[in-house]
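Whiteboard transcription, Tuesday session. T.W. wrote the structure tokens on the left side:
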């Protein structure tokens, strides 16, 4: 069977993940850039080589791995190297994806994209010393973004099962462009872009008790940044994951 996965259900999961991403952006934007978090020559941890954010991310992932986080095929670690095994009994997650799914992990590029391009676009300059808190909010936002993008595996599996006869020849021919075209729904993408801009306005407004604060509209993250984040990065990367997954689908 389909283990309850349908095109509607996977799209609903992506819609709900938008909330997590937008709240994650709002939470990270509470702090200024705090560049010492990312500089391996600052906040040195004895015995650890790397920046504070790497220290927090690797150690947090290790704890979460032991507690079973990566037993769920929706979750992909940023530092899979040397990750400890789960210490707990696994919940029987449905094995909906093809086995090749495990080798699709673009978190290294997501990590670089986030720190080099995205972060400076939505946080203020400055330093308030909250480096550990900053690293923790970076990681939870990165995890939400990564979950969204890698959910492309589920989207692709649903689409493949709906019309294998359309997908199989393109997969055999390794026709990436043809696959990209077949899995793309422009209308859906346009709705996503509009909805996340609206959510950024609703979630990021200042809530006043006795009046609507519409004189001095200042949102906690810029709604047009959120829509361009989806347009330029999150949607294209989700589709890249869909294509990568499909290319392995008949192995
Ligand atoms: C995720 C899907 O596949 C593609 C990617 C989309 C996205 O990343 O939001 C939206 C529509 C499709 O072009 C989908 O069809 O829902």
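and on the right, the sequence the group agreed on:
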């Amino acid at each position: 069977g389909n283990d309850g996965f349908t095109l509607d259900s996977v799209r609903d999961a992506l819609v709900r993940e938008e909330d997590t991403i937008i709240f994650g952006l709002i939470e990270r934007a509470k702090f200024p850039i705090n560049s010492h978090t990312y500089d391996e020559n600052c906040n040195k941890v004895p015995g650890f080589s790397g920046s504070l954010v790497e220290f927090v991310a690797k150690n947090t992932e290790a704890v979460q791995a032991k507690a079973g986080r990566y037993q769920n095929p929706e979750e992909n670690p940023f530092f899979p190297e040397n990750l400890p095994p789960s210490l707990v009994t696994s919940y029987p997650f449905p094995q909906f994806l093809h086995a090749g799914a495990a080798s699709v992990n673009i978190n290294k590029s997501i990590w670089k994209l986030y720190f080099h391009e995205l972060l400076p676009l939505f946080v203020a300059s400055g330093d308030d010393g909250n480096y550990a808190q900053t690293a923790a909010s970076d990681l939870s936002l990165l995890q939400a973004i990564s979950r969204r993008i890698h959910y492309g595996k589920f989207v692709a599996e649903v689409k493949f099962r709906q019309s294998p006869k359309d997908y199989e020849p393109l997969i055999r021919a390794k026709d990436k462009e043809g696959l990209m075209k077949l899995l793309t729904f422009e209308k859906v993408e346009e709705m996503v872009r509009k909805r996340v801009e609206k959510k950024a306005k609703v979630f990021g407004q200042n809530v006043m008790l006795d009046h609507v604060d519409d004189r001095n509209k200042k949102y906690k993250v810029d709604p047009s940044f959120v829509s361009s984040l989806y347009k330029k990065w999150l949607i294209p990367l989700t589709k890249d994951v869909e294509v990568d997954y499909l290319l392995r689908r008949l192995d």
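Someone added at the bottom: The pocket of ISJ is lined by residues 11, 14, 155, 183-185, 188-189, 192, 235, 238-239 (CB under 6 Å).
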